[in-house]
Design goal:
about 20% strand; seven-stranded mixed sheet; alpha/beta; globular; 17 strands; five-stranded parallel sheet; Rossmann fold
Length: about 375
Amino acid sequence: MKYDFLIVGAGFAGAVAAERLASQQNKKILIVEKRNHIAGNAYDEYDEHGILVHRYGPHIFHTNSKKVFDYLSKFTGWRFYEHRVLAKLNGSLYPIPINRTTVNKLYGKNFKSDEEVAKFYESVREKRYPVKNSEDIIVNQVGKDLYEKFFKHYTKKQWDLDPSQLSASVCGRIPVRTNEDDRYFTDKFQFMPKDGYTKMFERMLKHKNIEIILNTDYKKIINNIKFDKMIYTGPIDYFFDYEFGKLPYRSLKFKWENINTEFHLKASSYNFVGKEEKFTRKTEYKYLTGQKSNSTTISTEYPTMKGDPYYPVPNSKNHTEFNKYKNLADRIKNVIFIGRLAEYKYYNMDQIVITVLQKLKMI
């Protein structure tokens, strides 16, 4: 059989591309996925205690795009959910992103207005110009002390690089607030898929024109498949057989524990911002899913350079190395490179969806 598209990877990029091409253009699609499941890093499943967990760490859906929300709504109902995170520092818990409550609790202040907090930030900030890296962007906003307490060690653990060695975009993703808003995100649409991400993907890919092969490296079977075009969502360096060497990615190892209590943490996630702990984050999944049960499951994240690629490491050196691969990719006419690994770019889930829709010119 001949396929119109071979799609490598069944995560967000591959699944959205497959669904749109199959349903809107009547294309015949073959998806080849290396793992034993669809949904990429958004994959969730019920553990042995009946708790729905995200096997690759918490995936919180949020977007300001009505188009993205309406598109995914074809495949899932939603549960309203606003994510809240607490930073654990010296045994105390503080709202993160940094807000008025964080500042008041940390410094024993009693600021009551945005203006007072803004004035405080102005008094402690160090002007950095130009802003070149992740240290600059935070110190420029809130000064050295808040940077060292909440950003420096957490970022070092997460990336194994000092924030001064990372693109400003890494820490720049996290806002600094003057009000008491303790939500991690402020997007217009903040929901979780009602039945989980995997169910949403199953519905997305349930189409007569879509065939899926799991547990398979596409390179092992590509010579036996007839297709017109490829959509590639895997690591771009692997596509080119590491011609210019491996691009660095950060991965995560998880420790899972089930605790015989209804809830264990005071919020869905704790960020461990000190250098004492080797781990970065704990997540309690029942906050995300709204499940009721007598026990609760928690994951603890340990960043590592080994394992599945999760996060491209954003700095100028790696970007230069990536561009060598991008130049090769741009010359290949029948392959479209999409996604976090193929574009060596940190995308949120909604950004992946919009990118795929735009690349396929379906918006």
